[in-house]
Amino acid sequence: MSKLVATLIAGLFAASVFAQTAAPAAPAAPAVSPATPAVVKTEAKSDKSVVKAEKAEARTDAKADAKVDKAEAKADKKKAKAQAKADKVAVEADAKTDKVKAEATADKAVAKSETAVVKADAKADVKASATK
């Protein structure tokens, strides 16, 4: 902890010393020479090339944006297709579940009626053996 405090204090002193140093003297203003035709021509060419480069960059950016938009649209289309497929599978699963439930209910009713028949047969057998 004491090392941390010492480091913070040293940093504070260093920052205050740096802040108090005198700004370097400004260099003397360079002498402006009159523009010669060659300088003007060179500057015009450089301006022209800068404009051309900016135009090419804008075109490249537009192409890249178009590719990104196209890729996003394609991804959205795939996502929608996958979602539709998942929904279809869910509906089919629900229908299958409903069918299985209906079959189970029918099987349960059949088993109940068969149980009633077996019980009736057992009662009849008991009565028949009792009367003998």
Kindly state the number of beta strands: 0
Q: What percentage of the residues does DSSP assign to strands (E)?
A: under 5%
Poorly predicted ranges: none
Classify the secondary structure makeup into a structural class. Answer: mainly alpha
What is the overall pLDDT average? Answer: 84
Helix content: over 70%
Question: Number of DSSP helices?
Answer: 2
Large-scale geometry? elongated
Oligomer: single chain
List the defining traits of the structure above.
mainly alpha; 132 residues; elongated
What is this structure's SSE topology?
Blueprint: H1 2-20, H2 37-131
Architecture overview:
With 132 residues, the protein is mainly alpha-helical. The chain is built from 2 helices and no strands. The protein has helices at 2-20, 37-131. The N and C termini lie far apart (106 Å). The model has no long low-confidence stretch (mean pLDDT 84).
What's the short story on this structure?
This protein is mostly helical and 132 residues long.
